[in-house]
Design goal:
- There is one protein chain.
- It is built from three helices and ten strands, in the order H-E-E-E-E-E-E-E-E-H-E-E-H.
- It has 182 residues and is an alpha+beta fold.
- The chain has a six-stranded antiparallel β-sheet, covered by helices on one side. Strands 6-5-9-10 form a four-stranded antiparallel β-sheet, with no helix packed on it.
- The longest helix is centred in the first third of the chain and has 13 residues.
- The radius of gyration is 29 Å and the shape is globular.
- About 19% of the residues have low confidence.
Length: 182
């Protein structure tokens, strides 16, 4: 087989440009450190990373737990063994329900609750405890409680500086409301 001279020169030129990779650098015998523990996963990505309709966003990990005590009843949402992310507390003596979420106050402690039937912004106040919570007082017949309990599968809590919470709409919400209403 005969190769044309220009093609032969081009082939030789290209093959001369390719060099063998350099030898790997010498590795010093350093002690092997144990891998760092991975950071705890975020509850829910911030709003900028959530795309589409909020009703399709993944639920924040956790479960609702219902309890009764001398003051009334309380529903707590969060991961088992951790501080609650959201609480609803019926205070029978005061005739009110406290809605709170875990987190410290930002310059604007307003919290927005979105359900399938309503969206409402609430002025939150620090509770002064440890861990930090922000809370608002609701009347026992506040329509927001029913909107949260009857929302189609979930509702969203948004607050500047804190993770978005996509909370399942379980029976515990309405159970606390009914405890205070009855």
């Amino acid at each position: 087989m005969r190769i044309a001279p220009p093609l032969l020169v081009a082939t030789l030129f290209v093959s001369a440009c390719v060099s063998a990779p350099p030898p790997p650098p010498a590795v010093a015998a350093a002690p092997v450190a144990a891998p760092a523990a991975p950071p705890a996963p975020a509850l829910t990505p911030p709003p900028a990373t959530l795309r589409g309709d909020w009703r399709d966003w993944p639920l924040t990990p956790g479960d609702w737990v219902y309890r009764q005590d001398a003051r009334g009843s309380i529903a707590l949402f969060g991961r088992p063994g951790s501080d609650a992310e959201v609480t609803l507390r019926c205070d029978r003596a005061a005739g009110v329900i406290y809605l709170s979420r875990r987190g410290a106050a930002s310059s604007n402690p307003a919290m927005t609750v979105r359900t399938t039937s309503t969206a409402r912004t609430l002025a939150m106040r620090p509770t002064g405890g440890s861990p930090s919570y922000l809370a608002v007082t609701l009347a026992v017949r506040d329509p927001l409680l029913d909107a949260m309990g009857f929302s189609r599968g979930r509702f969203v809590i948004e607050q500047a500086g804190l993770p978005v919470l996509v909370v399942p709409a379980w029976a515990e919400i309405l159970r606390v409301a009914e405890d205070c209403r009855g």
